[in-house]
Amino acid sequence: MMMLTKKTINRPRRMKKSLAVPSSEFSDSFVQGMYDRMCTSFFKYGKVADAYPDKVDAIASLKKRLDRYAETGNTEFLIDAANFAMIEFMRPRHPDAFFKPTDGDATGRMLATGAQSTKHNLDLK
């Protein structure tokens, strides 16, 4: 029988405080929410490897959760979307999936809103 324990997500202890990401730039509760929901899903639905990528499309599920967040404002859907992104990373359906670190210019920029949006978003076309 598999032994499972509740895990709390902690930042690396070996990281110097001066190099750590400020708490304003990372959400421990978001990552903990991802972990908690993955634990629940394991007991409810079984192993990720038993469903992904053959039986369930993680990207389609991710897009559906983003739509639900846009409709409702319920941030739990953002945690679900992040979990589906992680599942696609772990068990990719994309036939040519790969990981290659890129800088901001190669990944696309964030879309600005408000008065700055036109100026900053023109180069995205």
Can you give keywords for this protein?
single chain, 0% strand, 125 residues, mainly alpha
Would you spell out the secondary-structure blueprint of this structure?
Layout (H helix, E strand, L loop, with lengths): L27 H18 L2 H4 L6 H15 L3 H15 L13 H4 L9 H5 L4
Helix pairs in contact: 1-4, 3-4
Structure description:
The chain is mainly alpha-helical and 125 residues long. It has a domain at 27-94. Helix content is 49%, strand content 0%. The chain has helices at residues 28-45, 48-51, 58-72, 76-90, 104-107, 117-121. Helix 1 (28-45) crosses helix 4 and helix 3 packs antiparallel against helix 4. The radius of gyration is 18 Å and the shape is globular. The N and C termini lie far apart (54 Å).
> What structural class do you assign from the helix and strand content?
mainly alpha
- Report low-confidence residues grouped into runs of 5 or more: none
Give the H and E element order.
HHHHHH
Q: How many E strands?
A: 0
Shape: globular
Span between termini: 54 Å
Mean of pLDDT: 83
Strand content: under 5%
Percent range for helical residues? 40-55%
Question: Gist?
Answer:
By secondary structure, the chain is an all-alpha fold.
